[in-house]
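I am still learning, so would you mind making up any protein sequence you like and the tokens describing how it folds?
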Amino acid sequence: MTSAPPRPPSSLCFVNPDGVHPPLGLYSHVVRVPAGGELVYLSGQLGVRPDGSTPPGIAEQADQVFANIVTLLASQGLRPTDIVKLTTYMVAGQDGDAVRAARLKHLGSHRPASTAVFVAALVDPAWFVEVDVVACRPSPA
């Protein structure tokens, strides 16, 4: 597979306006998507490896979740910095710091709009974290 040609930085606008508290985590309060941008939705990603196996712990699953997200974005010619919105579901009682560490590892300093919630369970009891993503392909210049 050949590399996509470099493209200019995203024209997404991440805003934390006066009048509300500063972000309490790895997010921005507002993300504006410019006209002409193409939204790309990723289904909820689990900590399932390409071979179909699931690691036993939250840290390994979270790492795989974000690795899957980066791979799926790349398959569409997108980068983690093209993410507009993340929603993270963690099974109650699991280590949220492990999920945060995996997110930092794979997304770096990028701060999209985000929601994180603890849930009673995911569909399979072996799964501890699921993340869905909305990204934006910038409009051609």
